[in-house]
Amino acid sequence: MAFNFCSSTGIVSANKLVFDRGFHFATTLTLLHFVFTTLGLLIAMKAGAFPFKRLDAAKAAKLAAAGMGFVVFSNLSLQFNSVGFYQVMKHLTVAAVVAIEAVVFRRVLPRPLCAPVACLCVGIAITGATDFQLNVTGTVCAVLNVVFTAFYQIWCGALQRSLGANPLQLQLYIAPMSAVGLLPFVPLLDDYRRSSPASIWAWTPTPGVVGLIALTGVLAFCVNVSIFWVIGRTSAVSYNVLGHAKTTTLLTLDYVAFGRPLEWANATGLVVAITGVVTYTQQKLRLSQRAAAAGSAAAGGGGTGR
């Protein structure tokens, strides 16, 4: 959990520092993250961390496309938005997943979860409307990040179950596919024109920024591996509490390290949004525990009857 906490909060902070220090090429940075993740997974597999499993490449490609979109727009959102708005908008994925499942899969949200989701949406609306860095480009990137992340989460869970693969085996397929699929878009989304003064060719690398870029690549791999460890070795309660701790830390860092001004309207929005997230998590866990208890009781009753 400590490893996941440090790598998750570290990659957001490191990415933001990279952008703030003049490297404004989020898609190129995303490509490097996929390359680092692929290399790290290959090394981990060779070291015996997980066995290779042959998967359906066509099914994995669909997930790779969604993963490519959510990482690209995640980095673009972080480039154009404040850390606070970026982090709070990520929680809107909960509402997006609910909406997609309702429309596509006809899964109705349980009544106890409706109020927390509404609270989350209201908080995010207040936060966005009062954010000191609010801009059209950043807002569009944040919304697209939410949409791609929602589809990625839905498809990832379904694909793991259908293929019988663990997250690292699936990532070993997705990361290189995403890297290759992203290549044609890099010169379109980033400035690669030789004649442009703002192009990547005009960027002057410094040891500090190059080191930060390499660090973000290593952290990208660490985040993927540590999520697998945390989910496998802790409870759902611990995993969700860890998520809230990361959000609180990143919001605090936005005020302390990245110069976010303290505005009461914006702070109120953040509090309302986080309240919705925490309440949603608590209600979701209660419903899961009740369902598990009901399943155990039914199984016990069936055994007694026989």
List the helices and strands and how they pair.
Blueprint (H helix, E strand, L loop, with lengths): L1 H19 L5 H21 L10 H24 L2 H8 L2 H12 L6 H20 L5 H28 L3 H16 L3 H4 L17 H27 L2 H21 L7 H42 L1
Helix pairs in contact: 1-10, 1-11, 2-3, 2-8, 2-10, 3-7, 3-8, 4-11, 5-7, 6-12, 11-12
Question: How would you describe this structure to a colleague?
Answer:
This protein has helices at residues 2-20, 26-46, 57-80, 83-90, 93-104, 111-130, 136-163, 167-182, 186-189, 207-233, 236-256, 264-305. The chain is mainly α and 306 residues long.
Number of helices: 12
Mean pLDDT: 86
Q: In whole angstroms, how far apart are the ends?
A: 44 Å
Work out the radius of gyration.
Answer: 21 Å
Approximate strand percentage = under 5%
Residue windows where pLDDT falls under 50 for at least 5 positions? none
Q: Helical amount among residues, as a percent range?
A: over 70%
Structural class comes to mainly alpha
Number of domain units: 1
| Count of strand segments | 0
Question: What about the largest sheet?
Answer: none
- N to C succession of SSEs: HHHHHHHHHHHH
> Globular, elongated, flat, extended or rod-shaped: what is the shape?
globular
Features:
306 residues; mainly alpha; 12 helices; 79% helix; globular
In short:
This protein has 306 residues and is mainly alpha-helical.
